[in-house]
Amino acid sequence: YLVIDEQDDMVGFVNIRHYLNEVMLETKGQITYGIKPSCRTVETEEMILKISLDEAKEIGIKQIKIVCNKSNSNLCQFIEQIGGQFVNEGFNDVDRYPIHRYLFHLG
To answer: DSSP states of 68-95 as a string?
Structure first.
């Protein structure tokens, strides 16, 4: 998905994966996104995550696994505030950083 603002400028993109292989399950999760450097704000990141969860529910995904860089404590806290359940801590062997894994039940 492309994320477009009110002026029709691209802000970023979102990938929503229906299923995960083992590598993606351990390192990335079902939702990944990128935000254009000039648009990177906490508010933009939170908005994109909320919209992504809504879209995942809309397309019939019942549970979403999300991985967050442990050093991004604001995002980790936000994930928990909007219903993400902390599963465990791990390490992203691909990109080489500690992570927190979360689960959302979208019902």
So the answer is: EETT-HHHHHHHHHTTPEEEEEEEETTT
- Type of residue at 20: L
Rounded to whole angstroms, how far apart are CA atoms 4 and 98? 31
pTM assigned to the model: 0.84
C-alpha to C-alpha distances, 27 to 3, 24, 72, 77, nearest whole angstrom: 23, 5, 15, 19
- Residues 49-105 have pLDDT tens digits of 999 999 999 999 999 999 999 999 988 999 999 999 999 999 988 889 999 999 999
